Structure formats: structure tokens, C-alpha cells
Amino acid sequence: xxxxxxxxxxxxxxxxxxxxxxxxxxxxxxxxxxxxxxxxxxxxxxxxxxxxxxxxxxxxxxxxxxxxxxxxxxxxxxxxxxxxxxxxxxxxxxxxxxxxxxxxxxxxxxxxxxxxxxxxxxxxxxxxxxxxxxxxxxxxxxxxxxxxxxxxxxxxxxxxxxxxxxxxxxxxxxxxxxxxxxxxxxxxxxxxxxxxxxxxxxxxxxxxxxxxxxxxxxxxxxxxxxxxxxxxxxxxxxxxxxxxxxxxxxxxxxxxxxxxxxxxxxxx
Length: 268
Hints:
Layout: H1 5-8, E1 13-18, H2 24-40, E2 43-49, E3 63-66, H3 68-74, H4 88-102, E4 109-114, E5 118-119, H5 123-127, E6 137-144, H6 152-157, H7 160-169, E7 173-183, H8 184-196, H9 204-214, E8 219-222, E9 244-245, H10 254-267
Parallel strand pairs: 1-2, 1-4, 2-3, 6-8
Antiparallel strand pairs: 4-7, 5-9, 6-7
Helix pairs in contact: 8-9
């Protein structure tokens, strides 16, 4: 298989598919993602919680099981609620950081794809938009706190006294990390920063981008026309190839959506 230009240059990339539920729908979404990864020479790993997932993975799927008990023992600083297995807002940092701790040095970049991020066409079309970009953090909706101070995660996950402390000590940013890419060296700084926080919220959609900005890492905001954060409904018709859509919950059949998109394309 021919490697992409970045892979030929020696940059090792892995894509993490985060999902605890194993059924026909999530397997279809995984296989759709896998075709895009295979075309670029990226590794793809299904990441799930060893104590909380439901179903059986198909044969031949590379997977990594997180252990809640060992994670809370080894890195209790990385989550702010003990229910991270059942709440994806809490699960993502735990799953990703534990994978990184077990594979440190193997990969230069990690794409993090939550199960409810889906793409029309090929995932490779989306990945290649940022393949030659050397940013340490590629994510969506990057903004300083003052531009999003009414954001629900600021309001619900920060006690007032902690918010004042963190705002006084470094510029606070937010980002949407449902479909993002991080460098290995940024992960190291993120782990270090988590350890310095002894109280309050550690929600990853402000921690990761704030650490990147504070430490001078190069960041790249996914262009608004490269990601749709409004989700889809049963009658969705805005089909744009190579664009991830979030949040696409499991009551939506992505196979049916792709078939409908193909039919609509044939009619125009």
C-alpha cells in the first residue's frame, strides 16, 4: 500500500474510534472509517471500556480496552467525575490518555473520533485536508472564553471560585473535540497540566486547547465548512462529501443516510 506524503515522511498516525456500544450500526461506522484509514496507511483502533461495553467485536478489529480501576489508580487527575464510562463528556479524556500512556512513543499523531461523528464520502477526504498541516492540535470551534462565556460546559462544570482562579492564571479557551488530532508532545503537556489542578472542573474541551495555547503549540481550527456540528435528523438533505457531522446518535442509520445521499446525488 502506498503511504501518504506525511506517512512517507515518517509521521506515524493512529485514529481512535471511541465507542462502548458494539452493534450493527457502530460496526458499520467503524468499517466506514477503516476504509479511509486504510487508504492513507493510518492505524485504526476501537477504544472501549473493559467493564462497560456491550456486544462482541468482529474478528480482526484492532481494539484497546480501558480499565476504569487502573485508570483511576494511575491517572486520577485526568477526569472530574467517576462516571466517565457512561458519560462521553467525561469518557473521552480518560480513554485517550490511557491509550497514549500505553503506546507512548509509537505514534506521532492521534486522531480522536467519537462514535457520533460520521462523514459523507470517504474519511480520507477529510483527513487529507489536514495531512500536511504540522499543527499540534487540529480541532473545531476554537475560541477564547470571552467569545463563549455562556457555553454550557463553562456554566455547568466550573464552580465559581475555580473559574476565577483559572481565568486569573492563564487565558481560557474552548474547543469542540469530537473529531480532533493531537501530537504526542502535546499529550505530554496535557498530562502534566492535569496533575497541577487539584480542584474543580477538568473538562477536556477547555483543558486541551487551553494547554495548547498556553504552551505556544501550533493549533488549527477546522474550517466551519469542514465540520457540521448540528447533527442530522431523519429528513436531512445537506450532504457534503468529506465533511464530518456531529452529533449523529445511534438511532440514525448512517448506512441509510449514505444510501439516501447517493440517490439524491444521482437525481441531480
